[in-house]
Design goal:
The complex is a heterodimer of chains A (59) and B (233).
Chain A: H1 4-58
Chain B: H1 5-28, H2 41-69, H3 72-104, H4 112-130, H5 139-164, H6 185-232
The chains are: A mainly alpha (59), B mainly alpha (233).
Chain lengths: 59, 233
Amino acid sequence: MNTPDHMSYLIAAYSAIWILIAFFLFVLMMRNRRLLNQVKELEDRLQDLENKREGGSRE
Amino acid sequence: MKVPIKHIVLFILTLITMETALIWALGVAPPDSEQGDVQRIFYFHLGCIWPGFIAFFYVAYASIRYLLTRDPEWDRRALSSGEVGLVFCSLVLITGPIWAKPVWGDWWAWDARLTSTLVLWLVFLGYTRLRDYIDDESKRPRISAVLGIIGACLVPFVYMSTRLFETMHPKPVIAGDEGSGIKHPDMQMALYLALAAFSLLYIVFWQQGREILEGESRIKNVKAGLNLLEDES
């Protein structure tokens, strides 16, 4: 049973496991990064709003 | 952004357990007398499916809690668990045929165990993707919860399928009949380590997924509030 051909199945199975786990980890990281970008966008919008209000109160 | 210490400890523990499980499965456990080294696929194959089953049961539990309380936190917990369960079920469906080819001589057999696992995978693929196609936000978690509960009901059938029907798939190793299972202590240790590693990985992934879903929900609420303020000014 321990032919090199069968070892290649073992290597393929364990490689597939790590590739899929790494892919899911990558997806989670991307979603996390998208969240951080959205937070940045909200901070910018909030800053704009504050600037507008400050400008309005000076006038 | 500060990562809580318990998350770091859990992550390190998962890495160590996974590494030990890998060493035991590929190095310490002896090769199977009939199947040879290809049998080593089994440790991670089975190591994936049990936490996968737990993930699907948790979907059912969290979905029931959601239907009772209508608290969106339970919907997020269920969705995160469903996503991780789907990944683990995918691993089982990939490693199973890779093991089957040299042992059975074929990649796939349409027997009860393999077909029911594929159906389970399809149900949870639907569960995780369904909410993208429901526009009504009030209906979205409710319909998903019902599908999640139905999907989890399939899990006992998948487990029992090798007992209920004549299948090519080996008989259960965990809680199996007398005579089934593995006897060598190093083989048993390899299996237990793989189960522990994937259980820890499930917790790590589930926690991360739940936090991301919570963050998305909170950002959505803040955006809605900000839109109102911008309209007023």
